[in-house]
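To the team - 3-methyl-2-ureido-butyric acid complex, inputs and output below.
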Amino acid sequence: MPRILTVAAAQLGPIQRAEGREVAVARMVRLLERAHARGAELVVFPELALTTFFPRHYHADRAEADAWFESAMPSNATAPLFAAARRYGITFHLGYAERTPDGHHYNTAILVSPAGDVLLKYRKVHLPGHAEFDPKRAVQHLEKRYFEVGNLGFPVIRAPAGGLPGVNMGMMICNDRRWPEAWRVLGLQSVELVMCGYNTPSTNQSAAGFEAHHLRVFHSHLSVQAGAYQNATFAVACAKAGTEDGCELFGHSIIVNPQGEIMAQATSWDDELITADCDMDMCTLGRTTIFAFDKHRRVEAYGRITGQVGAVAPPVWSKTEQ
Ligand code: CDV
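Output:
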């Protein structure tokens, strides 16, 4: 018997700075309706899905930025999303800015059951950007100003999803997808489905050197496809897309299988639902053969992965040392 879960990426078009959470939530509820009509059982929304990608906006007074954060989940504004998920029997993944009761700030994602239970929470580990206003940049990227580094590691949970009694599910957020370490930590927990929301500008905004426009989507897909293949897992990477506050985000949400193949891809820069029927048993081949970690990993050779952060220079070859 195949273990099929019908998953969806619910890509969101732009959410402008002036638009409230209610606008975003109404659009997300419509996407859940469409997901239900198309038989989707688990829906992935993007990173920071409830507002514009606010780290592009500088607040000299850090406390002003608290307006972008959620201190309750669900809240009055997000309750319709939870109600729709319950109505349609859909498990959903939601990215949002989290302010904890004791005043910590994280870029967070939760996985919520149709009954409203939080099955899993993840807080973004790899925060890109900078903490202070950077006059050299055309657009700011102030994640390091507004968020703390996530303190939950990369957790995986086995929980019911759709008609399946147990699926091994894990999460990462946006920039994390570029880091093989994040994928491998999930792979080492036998993950079968990785969910990743993202907001990625169509051009490199750091003004540090030339990066050809077309490579932006390529690098995103390359990272997700490689991560899925090398860890024998399905992956859903779901974007915010289109021109938001004058800044273009490239969309191109994808669903990828454990062979690294793209099963579905968004083609608009707007709200768009893509779906795929994922047989979780397809993860078995990779993890029992070429990526049978227990048989083939050589941790004694991997010390640098956790023992050092930055790259060091290699020794310089010299004939006399032979
Ligand atoms: N939201 C992100 O983490 N965005 C980064 C950008 C800044 C490159 C990303 O890796 O897509």
